[in-house]
Each structure stands twice: as C-alpha cells, then as structure tokens.
User: What shape does this take?
Amino acid sequence: MEMTGPMDVTGREFEDLAAHARQAYLRYSFTRGTDQEVAFLAEVLDLRPGMRVLDVGCGPGRHAHALAERGMEVVGVDIAAAFLAAAGPGRWVRGDARRLPFFPGSFDAAISLCQGGFGLLGGPDDELVLVQMAEAVKKGGRVAVSAFSAYFAVRHLEPGETFDAGHGVNHERAEVRDPEGQVETFDLWTTCFTPRELRLMAAAAGLQVTGLWSVRPGEYRQRPPDLDYQEFLVTATV
Ligand SMILES: C[S@@+](CC[C@H](N)C(=O)[O-])C[C@H]1O[C@@H](n2cnc3c(N)ncnc32)[C@H](O)[C@@H]1O
Assistant: This one.
C-alpha cells in the first residue's frame, strides 16, 4: 500500500500516533528519499565507516539503518516505543530529545531529520534539542538538523491547516493509516522556522553553521534557501 499526503508527523501525540502507524510509517512517500538523503549527509558531514552517529527522533530508523549500512555505528533515540519496535534490529534507545541519555562527547555526529523532535516541541524546548545534540557530539564533530520552513508553510497553506503567526506553528488534522489500512486522525503541530532563526538558534546552542539549504524529501542538495521547498537543512560543527 502506498501512502501520500500530509504526514509532517509532528505534535504532542507521538506515542499514540506511533502505536497506530508502526511499520506503515515507512509506506509514506516522504520516506522514499532516505538513501539520497544519507548519501548527501555522508558527504557534507564527512561521515566515515566506524564513526559513531546519533539519530535523534529516529522513528522506525530509516536513516539509522542506511548509515549503519555505510559502516557507521549508529544509535537511534526516539520518544515513541512503538516506532523503535518497528525499527527492527539495531541500537535503539527510548528517550527524549530534550534530555538525551548520553555522556557529553559520545558521538562523532548527530542528526535529527524530518522533525525528529526538533520543531515538535515549541519555544525553548526546540532550542534545548540543539543544545543536547551539540553536547552529545565531541569537539569538532558534526550536526545536521532539518526544520520545516515558515515561508513554505504560509505560502502553501493547505485547506484545513492553520498557521499561528505569533509562534510560527502550523496545525493540521492528519489522517494516518495503520498497517491494515485503518485510518485515525491526529492533531499535528509543527513549529516552522526561517533561516535567520535557525542560524540564531544554532549559534545559541554553541554550533557553528557550515551550511543552510532548502531541501525536500529525497532532494537534499546545496540549494540556497528559498520560499518553495518544505524544509531547511542546517549543518554545523561543534
Ligand atoms: C516525522 S518523525 C521523523 C522520524 C525520522 N527522523 C524520519 O526521518 O523518518 C518524528 C519523530 O520524532 C519523534 N519525537 C517526537 N518528539 C520527540 C522527543 N521529544 N524526543 C525524541 N523523539 C521525539 C517521534 O516519535 C517521531 O518518531
């Protein structure tokens, strides 16, 4: 079964959503670009076999698996037990991106993609995710975070979606299918960002930004920020 449509899986109900979607998450079309995304990240972050990589908000582990196939030692952390159960063999830790359960400097790199915690929490909690990622990575290590674009959200607001201009938060009611095709509706809130905000937040977290590009699923490239791509990808060093 193929799934398309809004699944900017975001919000405050991840346990419920994950318990409903499980492996069906990987049928959504936005998950198809994993290999391209990982190939791009491996190049720009200079990820090499043997490196320790942390995937924050890993979901069912699609990027973690692809990085492990390239020889990296990957640990995935996610708040939703049902997504980790759906991830299969691997090194998974149930945890909150706001309080990462790792010693400082444990990893060579940390990634958080497709709103893997960052952008789901709102206000200072999103900043905390960047701080926690920066701490988990050793000095000179790399960080990559994708974030939903405020420009795109406003310009391409879909029927039924609302955008809170005061907080930059997009709200939608999204229909999510389980592996048997049963539909449930979830409230999804996504905090959206401008490149300027992302640079300021990264700097406040002690990160040195090395790149900030407009991307969309399966199209991770060094494309200057624009108004019509869903996400921004920030790369940085610690
Ligand atoms: C849209 S999914 C992205 C999953 C994965 N990164 C990907 O690209 O497919 C968002 C993930 O963030 C996780 N998440 C949400 N809030 C979190 C938090 N506070 N700490 C850790 N993970 C969180 C959700 O459980 C979900 O797996």
Notes: The pocket of S-adenosylmethionine is lined by residues 9, 14, 18, 31, 57-59, 62-63, 78-80, 83, 96-98, 113-117, 120-121 (CB under 6 Å). The first helix runs from residue 14 to 21. The beta strands are 52-56, 73-78, 92-94, 107-112, 137-148, 162-164, 169-177, 183-191, 208-215, 231-237. The radius of gyration is 16 Å.
